[in-house]
Amino acid sequence: MKKPHISRRTMLKGLGGVTIGLPLLEEMIATNATAAEQKQAPVRAFNVFFGLGIPAPLQTEGFDGVLEPLKPLGDKLLIMRNVDQVRCDKSGINAHFDGATGSFTAEPPDGEAKAGGPSLDQVIRKTHYPNGMPAGMVPTLIGGTFFRRSRVGRYVHSYNFDGTVAARMQEKPRELFERVFGTINVSGEGKSDREKRLRRSVLDSVVDQYKFYAGKNSPLGSLSKTRIADHLDRIREFEQRAYSMQEKDPNAPNLPSRSQIAHGGLADPGGEGIDITLEELTSEWRLMADLYALAIQLDRVRFGALTFLAAGERIRLTGNYKYNGKTVFDFDDAAQHNKSGSAGCSHEWWHQFSVKKKNTQLRAHVHMKMQELAYFLKRLDEPDSMEANGKSILENSLITISTESGDGRHADVKRELSGVFHAITGANGRFKTGQIMDVNAEGIDVYNTMLQSMGASHKLGPEKRKRNQVDSIRA
Amino acid sequence: MKCLTSIAVLLLITGLLLDAGSACAQSSSAGRVQNGLLVLYDFSSESGPIVKDRSGVGRPVDLKIETLKAVRRTAGSIEVRGKVIIRSENGANKVTTAVKQTGEITIEAWLRPAKSDQDGPARIITLSKNGSERNFTLGQDGDKFDVRLRSTKTSTNGIPSVSTPSKSLKTQLTHVVYTRDRTGRTRLYLNGKPRAEKIITGNTGNWNGSYRLALANEHSMDRQWLGAYHLVALYNRDLSPNEVARNFQAGSKASTALAKNRPSPKQVHFETQVAPLLSRHCLECHDSSIKEGELDLSRKLAAFKGGENGPAITAGDLSKSLLWEAVVSDEMPQDKPSLSDEEKQVLKKWITDGATWTIDVIDPVIYSNAGPSANNWVRRLTLPEYIATVKSAVGVDISAEATQILPPDLRADGFSNTAYNLNVDLKHIESYAKLAEIITDRMDVKKFVTRFTKSQSLADKNMIDLIEKMGKLILRGPLEGHEVATYRGISTSVATSGGGFKDAVRFTIEAMLQSPRFIYRIENQQGDGTAWPVSPYELASRISYTVWGAPPDQALMQAADSGDLYDLAEVKKQVERMLKDPRAVDRSTQFISQWLHLSRLENMSPSKEHFPDWNQQLAADMREETLAFFKEIVWKQNRPLSDLMNAQITFSTPRLAKHYNFAVQTPSGKSDAELVRYDLSSIPSRGGLLTQGSVLTMGGDDASMVTRGLFVLNDLLFSEVGDPPPGLDTTPVPTKPGLSHRMTAEKRIADKACGGCHSRFEPLAFGLERFDGLGSYFEKDAHGNDLRQDGKIQFPGAEKPVSYQNTAELMNLLADSDRVGECITRKLTQFALGRPLVAADAPIVKRIHQSAIKQGGTYANLMTAIVLSDLIQKTRTEKTE
What we know:
The complex is a heterodimer of chains A (475) and B (881). Chain A has 475 residues and is an alpha/beta fold. Chain A is built from 15 helices and 11 strands. Chain A has one domain (45-182, 257-473): 3-Layer(aba) Sandwich (Alkaline Phosphatase, subunit A). In chain A, the strands form 2 sheets. In chain A, strands 4-3-6-1-9-10-2-11 form an 8-stranded mixed β-sheet, sandwiched between helices. In chain A, strand 7 (315-323) and strand 8 form a beta hairpin. In chain A, helix 6 runs parallel beside helix 9 (278-297), helix 7 (193-214) runs antiparallel to helix 8 and helix 9 packs parallel to helix 12. The longest helix of chain A has 22 residues, at 193-214. The two termini of chain A are 37 Å apart. Chain B is an alpha+beta fold and 881 residues long. Chain B has 4 domains: 32-254, Jelly Rolls (Sandwich), CATH 2.60.120.200; 265-357, no CATH class; 379-521, no CATH class; 598-816, no CATH class. Chain B has 32 helices and 26 strands. In chain B, strands 1, 4, 5, 7, 12, 13, 14 and 16 form an 8-stranded antiparallel β-sheet that branches. In chain B, helix 14 packs across helix 15 (501-514). The longest helix of chain B is centred in the last third of the chain and has 21 residues, at 616-636. The interface between A and B is large, with 82 and 91 residues.
């Protein structure tokens, strides 16, 4: 990679590049010191999603196959096979979307931008922080590098209890950086102290009104009040950024340079896919992963989701792919398909998957994805990520990695949403690690078992459903 | 979760159906006033201890006669002869919540006092706890009528009261009406004429929801009233003198028509339980088009007639109902999961109870999947709505900055204004604060306030008056006391910091621009779980944002102030006026842009190899073509919306005309980028939205028949198909010599595994095969294969497909299809509501469509019908704890 990765150390020391006027919040520095004094690591939960899954037959190959890049982290992961998400299928709806929205929720979607229920991270967040996150912390951080965006459920993987997205997707590294580390200058240059004080009283009055409409005397219904309460939380965060910041920090980090790849509508030209090089893709993703990991390391975020490529992603990838210095594959999807447009995208390798074939291209794509996921996970396992209990953030957190489908074909629902790849971390000793396990269970039972182990009383899925504990995953 | 959703849907449909028929049929010209009605007792039952609330609004507040022997019941009246109280079992929360919300009330009674010397006052109608704590009481005080109503400025006993003059009470049948408006102006009418008037200030925010409604006595049983009741009604607003006179003229035995509109429990059971069940489990094989075993369960007559094995349903007789036998034995559905025990019970109850069938055709799209539940999400202003609201409120055009700073609204369920997805991020908060600062920087604050006050005093009286007036404009309705106090706090802070009037106003406006009442469309959603009429100011905002995507103007606010918006005839006039405003055109173009997803064109990136001449200007031209075409048909020519399918004109720039292979017109003085009107009567292959590049490009580079066909199926015919069958490779099949797209499609249709679904949508695109991926017209493809344009279209629900010979005929079929028309109605209604439609909306949407078509089927007709419908006039409430 051309770009050196950003770490907590480089951030705090302000190494390299041009520093910019982004003062650090006091908590950003202080929390680490506080954390050092804490013997117990905080509860954290993140959902990590990758688009276009790992066909179930390839999962059986373990670390000898496409999962190879996860091998160095194998002791800290529980890889689960035969996790069944068939209940997430919604008739008449694109299975990529169903499977993606069902990831981490175990429910079929309830709208193009709405899940059928909350995601794991949000249930855990509400369990452990029912009154909101500590001041200065981003309540939920959602980021990702992806290009297919016809439905929000394809790429957002953190959902509130009412099924709406838990936070806005930050799809550019610079946006994610600002969401986590940015500060707000409420009155700009040249404004008097008096004006700043008055603007603060304006904000106080705004807060009072949001409190009223979120409170017991509000004329609004429960869902609307929740929305207003979310708005109020964002205002409080705004207050924190605007008024509780320190003076400009000489060691302020670099603002990431502007993204060089397509975003927004340009990233998904009518579902036809885009041309992108491996260098462009991984540079963007690794910067995103660095920043997300940094946010966790600095205890600015404890819950959220990170996406590497959307469900049903359509890219025409080119470039030499290496792993451990050796070429694994030369990507050139369009040429290898001998087609342009959507028909020339890597997505088609999944359509063409067959246990009777070598599936060379698909294997290479999945291998690359695992390498990139491992990149993020390693950030949370490096020396900067060591916590007071002697374990890394990776070991202390619940990180759930999943995808949209098992088989990969728009084919048999039973195969497509069965055997969906899952991997979890140990969550500070709560779950087994160092194993590849055939759990042979429904995703909803796996998730509910995970939630119970994380101390949550809320259960995903219908009230009346008979629940089956998956004790085999517990440590 | 699903169980809860079902209950929610049931509640919703029950609430909406209670109002069935009232959507577009209410009239101010005759009969009793119905707008704002909360409870109505017509005493029509001759026996029994219960007096039914027949308002048809919300949950009924029925009353119980606690000593039946003390009354005499006849059809149309009840005479109180001895010691008794007739009261609700629980607090009359429906009344209390509504009056707290509006601050207004009308109490109406047709009655005959037994004698003229009853006092205490003797309680005629009371909403109270005991002799000294009440929300209101209408009583008899000797030879006068007396009303006590509690406000924040009266005692808990409602003192001071208002009374009719001495000797005004007669022991005759009398029409008594008490009205109170938000300002505290109260009036008492006798037999249609005002007999007393008084100002009693304060608001009704301190009313107690636990108080029960009672007739004939106080709850303490020591204020008995004797006499006869013929009618009692309560409204959530003050009726105008004309309306009071109208109710008087209607008489004591006036028809209480709303009660007749209630659906029967059997109807509700069928529409909310049985129709969804049949849709989910049966219609895939037994609808009008597939009709396996000659059985069509989607239509009443066909369903009862049965199939080749005999009658499927025999009302009241399970043993003669083959449908039941097949289901209970798990013989059906074939090769699919059996019905659950609960579902079987639903079916059993339906047949046993007489198999009531109330829908013309069960449309699986509507009934099988309620879709996202129709929850009440508060609506945040979208970006264009925010810009329009700022412009209207304070006269500042903030479009450039707002577009740059505010995060874009994301598309969900086909539109970018879907309320559940309009959440906020930190960036929004920062943007709203920054924009408020920019807006006030740009305002001439002193000039702005001259419309509210001439004084520039920071004194309490002036500032409160200014805040109330300015707030009402900016926040789209009167302010509550706590809001005034909050804003007053800002001006006080300014004053104490040495600031002046201008700063005080400026910072107050900044606060208002960030308040929930500005950023969101705040409405009351508390009630009893049923649909309630919205308040006049809420209605004003609903109308203006629906028609304009902008806040109410002065005329609309005045109509809200005066209560005129309670009259649907007045609402209609307002909509007609508003549709002449350019903002209505802007709003309509937002609709068409989102419906057809025209912003997609900005991001097109077709293969350079196959389309070397493509450039972004062409994409922009295609978008402009569709918008110009839409404006021409909808606004300039005021033609029915169905004409969008086949109108023989279009607008094109010279470069787009060249792309389309038109004979390029280049009128002198026009640049290459300007649109020129083209008459298409000599180009039969073109004409209508589907033949425009903006829509044709949906099929991608390969002009996918699947994608185009699915667009027509989903977005023009509101139908859908299931998932692709097992083992299918959906990789597009490339064309080659001897194999056109059409041939591949026909193979799919002929294939047993694929044809069931593909026959329903691919032929919809056959008529478009001659248009390539970018909308250019060819009669042969790149391999020399002939491209065809004939086909058959199977309209959802129709028994047989219809043939067409060419593109023009397909467009004509679509234009003539009521299904397409209804789909457009559904799309515009969804856009108006900011949420996907659910099964519970179906009856109302049907009425909207029928009303619009009857009026001519134009955009204006449709918009008017939407505004007059219960979907805009009412809101579904949540039961207040």
